[in-house]
Amino acid sequence: MKKITIQEMPKHLGETVKIGAWLANKRSSGKIAFLQLRDGSGFVQGVVVKADDEDMFLTAKGLHQETSMYIIGEVTEDSRSSFGYELQVKGIEVIAEATDYPITPKEHGTEFLMDHRHLWLRSKKQHANMKVRNEVIRATYEFLNDRGFTKIDSPILTASSPEGTSELFHTKYFDQDAFLSQSGQLYLEAGAMALGNVFSFGPTFRAEKSKTRRHLIEFWMLEFEMAFVEQDESLEMQEQYLTYVVQSALKNCKLELEVLGRDLSKLEKIQGEFPRISYDDAITFLNEQGFDDIKWGDDFGSPHETAIANHYDLPVFIKNYPTAIKPFYMQAHPDRDDVVLCADLIAPEGYGEIIGGSERVWDYDLLKARIAEHGLDPEAYAWYLDLRKYGSVPHSGFGLGLERTVAWITGSEHVRETIPFPRLLNRIYP
């Protein structure tokens, strides 16, 4: 008898198979028991009929939530379920009995669920979130590999801040000071000078005391750097990339998105060619919409980003922010000295910035001056300056916050549900 996963069931219609599963839930009448089964690959209903085997029926009725077992049954079609199949159970072999499982089908508070995150991951919606997260990662690798990108692993421990901020986690590196990385970008620039188009994917850390639904202390960043690429070319790559992963999620995770109640029409519109507006025009738009709290030179807050993106009902690029509010490494605008060649991509529906990128300063003297202007230690950035001394070229890059992007794709209320074990201002357990 073939042992399969729930996900493989459509390939075995009419066959009797064996599946290792946990009991997610159950209900029964006097004659039939319906077992909601999960195995990590998916969820399916198992039907146990009393008339077929009374002892097995009694076993089924006595099972507790999250008991593990091997289930033997025939795969049949079920047009009433979103999965489209169910299992006519012919045998149950209990592996490990579970009793008093703390997360029952009733409503639980968020803090309780977060305290039991190691178990909450088993629920249908959290399972769906993790499946979509995995698909975004898989599609990213596929997209970049098809376009000749090389993965570069940047260090997590660094001697300085890529963006010159104080929102860093400090640690001791033997007898030196070190910080947990907030970005691998500077190292990716070195990689781009060696390998052309490169990317990294790993955890990043921000010691930012924020409690909003958009923020995590530890999150995963996808970062991309491209040699001989200027800013407008980078924006085209960002459009192509985001369209690719969204459409891949629609194609390969439609069932999971439906479980999460996502409005698929919102995602079906993501086809590239995103609106592009200047920072100047964004300020004008916000003032016209009654946002009197923001003026030229200010950074945008959540309400401002939401208003802009919802106006277009699509992701929108906001281009050319003021030099004073952006990091030292961004290339100056060719016609203005008060803005830089950069763009943030803002997602609609209140999810905020999901991509930030820029063309990088590639002139040695300008970069050296920028480092001094920002009060940074030139010695700490000597290696970064070397990249401009030896064969410098125009280059651009961008970073995408994975959890915030997955939250937007899935329609999740909070980014904490899009990472297996979130680290928040008040949470480092479990």
TrEMBL record:
EC identifiers of the protein: 6.1.1.22
Annotated GO biological process: asparaginyl-tRNA aminoacylation
Keywords: Aminoacyl-tRNA synthetase, ATP-binding, Cytoplasm, Ligase, Nucleotide-binding, Protein biosynthesis
Localisation per UniProt entry: Cytoplasm
GO MF annotation, one: transferase activity
Matches recorded under Pfam families: tRNA-synt_2, tRNA_anti-codon
InterPro entries (alphabetical): Aa-tRNA-synt_II, aa-tRNA-synth_II, aa-tRNA-synth_II/BPL/LPL, Asn-tRNA-ligase, Asp/Asn-tRNA-synth_IIb, NA-bd_OB-fold, NA-bd_OB_tRNA
Location of the Aminoacyl-transfer RNA synthetases class-II family profile domain: 130-430
One GO cellular component term: cytoplasm
EC primary class: ligase
Main subcellular location of this protein, as a coarse class: cytoplasm
Catalysed conversion reaction: tRNA(Asn) + L-asparagine + ATP = L-asparaginyl-tRNA(Asn) + AMP + diphosphate + H(+)
Quaternary structure and partners: Homodimer.
Homology family: Belongs to the class-II aminoacyl-tRNA synthetase family.
PANTHER family per the UniProt record, alphabetical: ASPARAGINE--TRNA LIGASE, MITOCHONDRIAL-RELATED (PTHR22594:SF34), ASPARTYL/LYSYL-TRNA SYNTHETASE (PTHR22594)
Protein's name in the database: Asparagine--tRNA ligase
Species annotation: Kurthia sibirica
UniProt lineage: Bacteria, Bacillati, Bacillota, Bacilli, Bacillales
Gene: asnC
